[in-house]
Amino acid sequence: MANVVVVGAQWGDEGKGKIVDWLSERADIVARFQGGHNAGHTLVIGNQVYKLSLLPSGIVRGGKLSVIGNGVVLDPWHLEVEIAKLQGQCVDINPDNLLIAENTSLILPLHGELDRARESAVGVAKIGTTGRGIGPAYEDKVGRRAIRVADLADKATLELRVDRLLAHHDALRRGLGLDPIDRDALIQQLLDVAPKVLPYAAPVWKVLNDARRAGKRILFEGAQGALLDVDFGTYPYVTSSNTLAGQAATGVGLGPTAIDFVLGIVKAYTTRVGEGPFPAELNDEDGQRLGERGHEFGTVTGRKRRCGWFDAVLVRQTCATSGVSGIALTKLDVLDGFKTLKICVGYELDGAIVDYLPTAADQQARCTPVYEEMEGWSETTAGARSWADLPAQAIKYVRRIEELIQCPVALLSTSPERDDTILVTDPFAD
């Protein structure tokens, strides 16, 4: 059976939640492979709206096994709150339908404090983090001082891990003018939350490898977007993990041959939250209109998103770095009524035209977009479920995007409703 990875192919907020939910009905398992609770998915199912930031989207679909992989950093207190919130919406969550990798690193309160202290430090350029501790938690993971889910099961091991962690953090906190951590209080906090987490702990790598051999369909779900990848994104204005499709295997404990299809989620225009370069950003009436019509506010933070025309240069780049098999184009209906549309097809850099976003920050800052104009359409695309329902100019726009990004459209989403989707290529086809 085919296994599918879903990744955001821009700066996140492309509408992954709806697409993952749409695909999850055909999957047996939905696995989250990176990130923390700093990005969210909004799912609309009937009259119910679910807002998820840590749990895999499949959790709202009865009978689907949802998995949090080792590539994720987990805030156990947030997990407790999010589970309780969904249970209050009549979602059944138990160790039979939710598993957490035993080797998943934890986000602790000290991580959030450090994150916020750094962002507010005078004279330091802001990254635009959510302040939820994701970056510092990944730092501790790489620094081999993280506390992991399995450590919660043994007090002696936990104490050793905390001592190693605090030897690093108390020194950092002194430099930032913060009080040292109360060691005993932190250990007690972890012991108190352990019973809320440990029932879900499992050797996820083994569960998924067994499932794959049994022919189960696995849907791999990422957070953020490819342009926020710590290696290939607009560094340093990125997240702290690898968001590209290749991380799906490492982030749950499978080999690269487990990935059969990579679906890149792409918005029909471009948005980003936070600081950093954005060559096609619009600071005019068109940008305002895109934001208002697209309801461009972050699911988790509520922050207003910056908006711009579709940037084919960036999406072509992310399709290459993630090995995208086909894209799911979302929010086409937001473009309804524009007399003229523009697509960024290149950048002018120091008098030359370049067809990719340079790595160097100073060069990125000097890039100005080169636009191609297309006629818009006055008819509505909202709710379309077949190509025949789309205006001719909308089809031309989609086809031009395919040409420019050198990748076909596999799905076309025309509203937040899960059934308002045009299927071109089935990602789960064997």
From TrEMBL:
- Kindly give the InterPro entries that the UniProt entry links to this protein: Adenylosuccin_syn_GTP-bd, Adenylosuccin_syn_Lys_AS, Adenylosuccinate_synth_dom1, Adenylosuccinate_synth_dom2, Adenylosuccinate_synth_dom3, Adenylosuccinate_synthetase, P-loop_NTPase
* Principal location: cytoplasm
The listed locations are: Cytoplasm
Q: Which domain of life is it from?
A: Bacteria
Cross-referenced Pfam families? Adenylsucc_synt
Where on this chain does Mg(2+) bind? 13, 40
What does the subunit comment say? Homodimer.
- Protein name, entry field: Adenylosuccinate synthetase
Give the species: Ketogulonicigenium vulgare (strain WSH-001)
**Lineage of origin:** Bacteria, Pseudomonadati, Pseudomonadota, Alphaproteobacteria, Rhodobacterales
